[in-house]
Amino acid sequence: MYYAGSQLTIETTVFDDRHVFELSGEVDIVTARELDSAVAGVSPGEYRTVIIDLRKVTFMDASGLHSLLAANAACCERGHQLRIIPGPRAQRLFELTGTEPELPLTGAFETRV
Known about the structure:
It is a single chain. The protein is of the alpha/beta class. It has a single domain (2-87), classed as STAS domain (Transcription Regulator spoIIAA). Helix content is 32%, strand content 34%. It has helices at 32-40, 62-78, 88-97; strands at 2-4, 8-15, 18-27, 49-60, 81-85. A 5-stranded mixed beta sheet has the order 1-2-3-4-5, with helices on both faces. β4, α2 (62-78) and β5 form a beta-alpha-beta unit. α1 (32-40) runs parallel beside α2 (62-78). The longest helix has 17 residues, at 62-78. The radius of gyration is 13 Å and the shape is globular. The two termini are 17 Å apart. The mean pLDDT is 88.
């Protein structure tokens, strides 16, 4: 599946027990709802692991961070294990806000088939 907004593209891949969202572009107050909708579309119990890949994100603000924190809570409620692959822009935001310990950050190896 493929979601495309004016400044954000979300490419979705599903394999085995993983649902992967690869984000490209900007995650901000205008586009964060697209991320919320994409994650909300994963049915409870359907996939064991939900992966959000942020390596191609060029900008992320507090709205994007809020969406990731909400995604983490939603995945926990639905029985999914969330994994977030940070890119340099997102990593910097996590460091500045001190939210690294609150997010399930991981490396790129998680997306391999």
